[in-house]
Amino acid sequence: MTALHCTRGANYWSRMPITTMDLTIGAYENISSADVPGFTQSLIEAMPGLRDHRCSIGEPGGFVTRLRRGTYCAHIVEHVALELQGMIGHEVGYGRTRGGDAVGEYTLIFEHRHEAVGLRAAALALETVQGAFAGTLTSVDHAVGELRALAETQPTPPLMQHILCGITGGSYRTETRDEMGRLGFGGPGLIFDVSPGYILQVGLPYSRSDIAIILNSDLTDVPDRFRVRRRADRLVSVVADAVPEGEIVICPAKSWEIQDTARDAGCRVAIFATDDDVTSKDKKVARASAMVQGRRIIIEEFDKSFQAGWIHDKAPVDAQVAATLAAFTLNELEPAEASSSSEFEQNQSRVRAGERAGVAD
């Protein structure tokens, strides 16, 4: 075992809380369950509930079939971790096993109802499977007793329930948050900038956000395999899972995979670009768009187009454009949902009247 942690909120793998274990299985890489006489029988006798696991076959008994045909150690540990929790009355069923960066390295993911139980179930599952391979497994009563005791301990405090905006991306998160504050939105606990690495390790620290901003998927704080574009896009898109259905996720104009994932989560999409290279195709599928023309920030919504601000030299352009689009979006929400929009409204009035707010063109 090389790493073990729990995620609390929506995460790369799922919207539910999960336990993640990075596992290096060494010599077990070359041994399947079918290679060891008595392996399947001893495991099923100790944990009869494994007979009900469907696995990839899709019906009860599917996992036992996989065991008899031959499956690998990490996959077995995943199912045992789920079943150990089931044996104390925690109904869990979601699990995945994926290859890591090198041969013999795996990432195991499984659902939990209690963080302490999930973490300990991972270690106990590994011990149980090792015992089955060694031919020494006779019972899991001690493991079940330990997990049952842990289930009685104080659970982890709940997530923050509701924030105004969640921001993620490989860069400019803090700058975007600060720009939103400059435009009149924010306050303690209202706007969260969440690093992709934190999402991968812990999940989102909140349950709901009125909107979300995804700045980019050029990541530096995650393992190499999560920097691959499709995985990086999926990781930053986790912030869309906390946005209510029908509300807005702000994405870069050309990040089609991110936009599609946000739509799959039931969200509408607004796009931004740091130039005026936003095509009619881009605009056709977006709720609104923001772009830069000269030093002006232009927002287009349906058949309306107006200047919403001026580029200044105190923050990256990406942060300014994304924050301005977010402020515009929040300004359109019900008053109870948006905490303060007066400064943004006043700024809109000024720029429409031709004022430059002290910024030179």
Q: What would the keywords be for this entry?
A:
361 residues, 35% helix, UDP-N-acetylmuramoyl-L-alanine:D-glutamate ligase, elongated, eight-stranded mixed sheet, alpha/beta, disordered C terminus, four-stranded antiparallel sheet, single chain, 12 helices
Helix segment tally: 12
First and last CA, distance: 58 Å
The main β sheet shows up as: 8 strands, mixed
- State mean pLDDT (0 to 100 scale): 89
By CATH's scheme, which homologous superfamily of the largest domain applies?
Answer: Mur-like, catalytic domain
CATH class of the largest domain, named Alpha Beta
**Backbone shape:** elongated
> Helix content range of the residues, please?
25-40%
Rg calc: 25 Å
**What is the beta-strand fraction?**
15-25%
Number of strands: 12
In CATH, the architecture of the largest domain is 3-Layer(aba) Sandwich
Order of helices and strands: EEHHHEEHHEHEHEHEHEHEEEHH
Structural domains: how many: 2
CATH fold field value of the largest domain = UDP-N-acetylmuramoyl-L-alanine:D-glutamate ligase
Low-confidence stretches: 334-344, 350-361
Structural class: alpha/beta
Give the strand line-up of the largest sheet: 6-5-7-8-9-10-11-12
